[in-house]
Amino acid sequence: MSGHSKWATIKHKKGAADARRGKVFAKLIKQVEVAARNGGGDPASNPTLRTMFQKARDNSVPLDTIERAVKRGTGELEGVNYEAITYEGYAPGGVAVMIEVLTDNRNRTGSEIRSLLSKNGGSLAEPGAVAWQFERKGVVQVNRKADEDELMMAGLEAGAEDLSDLSEAWELTCDPSDVTSLRGALEEAGFDVVESDATMKPKNTVPLTDPTDVKAVLRLLDLLDDHDDVQAVHSNVDIPDDVLEAVS
What is the average pLDDT across 208-219? Predict the structure, then answer.
């Protein structure tokens, strides 16, 4: 189990509960707008928009706010032209990091990401240096109360590749193109789906047990995640439950 997966879950819950909600909303709205600009405003024919639309709804973004973002993306309303960039780098302890951003100023964002990494024990890497350690996957999270065996059977029939225990929820992994169909099948089968998304999963993980290194990595991931232009942060860090709880 990836320690960063747990960290991301904690961050998500915190963000939904306090002042970070506004920042979470802003990032999700931006993702919806870009998805509509790149693939059109119809979720039925634009799988990326369909995924981002659902992700925004899962996080309680108002429907009219999402619809306005779609219209900005299609040009029906005036909007900002964002550029999607993925930065690759390293955190303390040799942990690989993938940072997905949407920006209207490549130079500013690149400089700020480089600074965050270098000031917190990390470094920016050349394109391709880190990407090979990750693969794009779809994920669907289901309420932890679901029966593991029943969920696994239903998931496999609907295209799931694997099932993981995130402590707070079950997470099924699938091909990114199967996210919507897998979610739909699980909901139809009566499972309580918490959220679904497309993400970057590490092929191998870097175990960290030293509290100092763990704190340094989590601090850097936290700072990156809080940057306004950063949409997602992925890492291959693996932190044991007891160590993560001790430093949280």
Answer: 92
